[in-house]
Specification:
Blueprint: H1 2-9, E1 22-27, E2 30-36, H2 45-53, E3 61-64, H3 78-85, E4 89-92, H4 104-111, E5 115-118, H5 122-128, H6 130-138, E6 142-149, E7 154-156, H7 168-179, E8 183-187, H8 188-194, E9 210-214, H9 225-228, E10 235-239, H10 245-254, E11 257-260, H11 271-280, E12 285-288, H12 292-300, E13 306-311, E14 321-322, E15 338-346, E16 349-356
Helix pairs in contact: 3-4
Keywords: Hydrolase, Metal-binding, Multifunctional enzyme, NADP, Oxidoreductase, Riboflavin biosynthesis, Zinc
Cofactor: Zn(2+)
GO biological process, one term: riboflavin biosynthetic process
């Protein structure tokens, strides 16, 4: 199962709206076939592993990181494929909460006389599948927030300069994190200050995550890097109802996809409506890179599941721009709390990974 989980991890950021699943087929201590969900979600891991194993799969054990599917989409159910292959046993880490499956895959296997063992390395699988599980059970993708901060918690100088607070090694790690998510997202403030491309720049890596800019009024820079980068991959502009029709038309003509969602009292995009809209699009894992006010809105709405913090050995002072906007916390008991799961020195910077408590 550890090997199957490693196979599944390869598909993170590539398979949405489907989960990234790993499958390993074993008989008499020898691996006969293995597979991971292909980019775009098809084919699934199980038929790929079965194709490698061929006739030798009869009597073998299949280790799968998520319950084999039981519904027919573009392909037939994976549970039935395992039955046809004649495997003797299926070991799965998690039951699939998708209503189209939800135990039916395991039932198909048991009805065919296949031994089924569930819950193996379930905690690890749940972390790996968090994005898919979130979309199915909460209607929204998992949200990771990235912060690149000075030692005193600032994201830019008083003049707005922020390139680059962290070093090249930390920035390379951020690109690896982008690669493991379906989409990269920023707020309007960051779009105006940095005019970012939001592209994935890793040697030999051609896949580009979906790019998202959230701007209630679509008051975004034109003619710069961001606009020039539109042909490099799909680009969404999430806006409110007050966004001018001229701005919507401009960006649509340039190749972006404007999507309207509900606005909050200030006219900015409502965070919960935003995440619901992204879930409706099929996204499972979203990587948010700021800015401070946008991040504070997401945290305040209890929508951030994980925070990746990169801290550089530089001090910017009280006149620098804070890493987060106002949260309105009057008492410590009201403060959002996270638990650190990893910490590592990367180049001259410190990386910490924090997960939401509970």
């Amino acid at each position: 199962m550890a090997h199957a989980l490693a196979m599944a991890r390869r598909g993170l950021g590539l398979t949405w709206p489907n989960p990234a699943v790993g499958c390993v087929i074993v008989k008499e201590g020898r691996i006969l076939g293995r597979g991971t969900t292909a980019p775009g979600g098809r084919p699934h891991a199980e038929p790929q592993a079965l194709a490698q194993a061929g006739a030798a799969a009869r009597g073998a054990t299949a280790y799968v990181t998520l319950e084999p599917c039981a519904h027919t989409g573009k392909t037939g159910p994976c549970a039935e494929a395992l039955v046809r292959a004649g495997v003797a046993r299926v070991v799965s880490a998690l039951q699939d909460p998708d209503p189209r499956v939800a135990g039916r895959g395991h039932d198909i296997l048991r009805a065919a006389g296949i031994a089924v063992t569930t819950g193996v390395r379930a905690a690890e699988a749940a972390v790996l599948q968090e994005g898919f599980l979130s979309r199915i059970t909460r209607g929204r993708p998992m949200l990771t927030l990235k912060l690149a901060l000075s030692l005193d918690g600032r994201i830019a100088t008083s003049s707005g300069e922020s390139r680059w607070i962290t070093g090249p090694e930390a920035r390379a790690r951020v690109h690896l994190m982008r690669a493991g998510h379906d989409a990269v997202m920023v707020g309007a403030g960051t779009a105006r200050a940095d005019d970012p491309e939001l592209t994935l720049r890793l040697p030999g890596y051609r896949h580009q995550p979906l790019r998202i800019v959230v701007s209630g009024g679509l008051d975004l820079p034109r003619g710069g890097r961001m606009e020039a980068s539109l042909p490099q991959g799909r680009f969404l502009l999430i806006h409110g109802s007050a966004a001018p029709e001229e701005a919507r038309s401009h960006w649509m003509k340039k190749g972006a996809e404007p999507i309207e969602v509900a606005s909050g009292p200030s006219g900015s995009v409502d965070p919960e409506a935003l995440m619901q809209a992204l879930g409706d699009l099929g996204l499972t894992r979203v990587f948010c890179e700021g800015g401070g006010a946008f991040a504070a809105g997401l945290i305040g709405a209890d929508l951030v599941d994980q925070i990746e913090v990169f801290t550089a050995g530089v001090l910017l002072g009280a006149d620098g721009r804070a890493g987060l906007g106002a949260l309105g916390v009057a008492a410590l008991s009201e403060a959002p709390r996270f638990e650190m799961t990893q910490m590592q020195q990367i180049g001259g910077d410190l990386w910490q990974s924090w997960r939401r408590r509970g």
